[in-house]
Amino acid sequence: MAVLTFVDVIGREVFRRPIPPKVxxxxxxxxxxxxxxxxxxxxxxxxxxxxxxxxxLPARVRAVLDTFAHTISFLFVAxxxxxxxxxxxxxxxxxxxxxxLSIQTWPVAAVMFGCSVVMAVAxxxxxxxxxxxxxxxxxxxxxxxxxxx
Length: 149
Known about the structure:
Elements: H1 2-13, H2 22-43, H3 59-94, H4 106-136
Helix pairs in contact: 2-4, 3-4
């Protein structure tokens, strides 16, 4: 996507010949980039987390907060997955294609749906682990004590 944009800018500014389908290719690639990154980031627990206050709370309280956050996130992603599934079916049924290149759009929606399902499964696992932390008073991968100093 970056190379496409770079070449388009050079073509437009230097040669006065932009790449006509750049916008539609960027739109398709942006959707794929975002959704491929969401699932991977969730699986690897790579989301940004601000722990300034939370890291000093007891492990059980942190587990309750994590359970709440993961449950809300799961529900949100489940709705997104459902809507992506619906959009994919509509695009497939109508035979939607891009304007300039006539690329079928439903495969992109299918990949986005698949990635959101992966994210939903990862969030369900994180929610389960947080619920176990509520029961045991320990969060997975943590020693259970806040840092000192």
